[in-house]
Every structure is written in C-alpha cells, then in structure tokens.
Please model this.
Amino acid sequence: MAGQKSSLRLIAAGGGPPQGFYRAGIEIRLDPGALTYWRMPGGAGVPPVFSFEGSVNAAGIAVSYPAPMRFDEEGTEAFGYRGSVTFPLHVTPKDAARPVLLAVTLSYAVCARICLPAKAEARLTLDPALEADATGEGATAIAAAEAEVPLRLTPQQRDAKVAIDRDKTAAAPAWRLSSNGDVQDVFAEAPPGWYFETRKSSRPGEFLIVAVEKPHGDGQSNSGAPLPVTLTLKSERQSYEFPVDLDAAATQ
Model:
C-alpha cells in the first residue's frame, strides 16, 4: 500500500511454521530523504503503532525492531530509519494445519522537512502447504532484518560486555558506559517522563548517558528507587540490548 513519501507491504519467508511460528515482515519503503521512527523516537517524533486486528488463526504475533540510526532533525535528535526498514514478525498459528490470514494496520510518521502522519493496511496469507525457499526475496529480506535486531542479553552477558559507572562529577545524573566491543551508538529507553541523552565521550569505546528530563509533580523523580532503563548498543556485527537500573533520582 502506497502513501505520501512511503509505501508498505507484508512479506513472508515461506513454508510452514517448523519452529512453531511463521517468519514474516512489515516492509516500509521511504522516499529519498524521508525517515520514519523507532519505538523510542528521540527528542521528537512518533513511534509506530501496530494493530493486527482482523487476523485469522493467529494465536500470537510478535514484532521485532532493527537497531535504529541517529539523525539530527534541525537540532533535535531523532532515532529511526531512512531508505527502508523491515520489522520482523513471528506469527504463531492457533491451528498449525490451517493457513493464517495476517492482517496489519500500521500508524506511523514520515518526515522529510515536514512530518506527515501515515496509516497503511495490508493482508497476507501464510500457508503451511507452501514450500520454504531460503533464497526467495521474502526470506532474504526477513533474514537481513532479523540480523539487525538487537540480541537481548542476560545480566551475566551484559556484565561481561560492558561496564556502567556513575559519573559523580557531573552536574546532572550521568553514567559512563565502556565496552570492549565495536559499539557504534547507544540508545536509552526510560519510563514515561524521563529522557536520557546518550553520546560518545572523548575516551575511546566510552559513551555518556545523561538524565536530561524527569517527571514533575508526581513524586516519582524523588522516590530514590533505581530507574529501569533499557539500553540498546548498536554494532556493525551484532547489536544488543539489556535492562539496567540507574539511580537517576539519587543525589550526588
């Protein structure tokens, strides 16, 4: 389905659900210069909203997000995608012997100098009788998108890859994240009302995480409890994500 500055379609890897689910994807193609947003859009923007109402014989549909890019939109940081993006789907059927009718409605934003709301619908039948073709267009595109989805780390795996230390000299709550890998960028997702700025420091392999916005008037920012934050570390070889508790409300 085509819209202003973008088009959307559903694709599938083909074949039955050998792992208990079908591998499919929502592909958005963007006009040159246009961008759309990640689940955490940055300082401004609108995240995509997925609805699978109308799907038939689907017990569960899980959406994954490829790691985003960072853009400067007239002085405001935006996190998202340019050119095209495919969101991988795992579609679990209620009855594996019967086809699944996959129906999606996606609300998202497309920005190119001005931002336009977009809404697109698409349908696709996933048939267990079809043979899998690992070299087909759909399978190739989905595999490439899955390779860009961050790997979720356990606390033990996280601690083996990165070190996160509070910077007690900073005026605002801040942390230094150091990694022994080839980390290209870091993105932080926090509870509503909070916003954490992330950027490279002057030290090799180190990033700064700074709490620049916090809730007002509800007492949450002064509770003293550690704040649950999800960090996504983008790497050329394998991106990964993990939860971490940051004592953003604690005094220096």
About this structure: The chain has a mean pLDDT of 91. Residues 167 and 175 are 5 Å apart (CA to CA). The two ends are 52 Å apart (CA to CA).
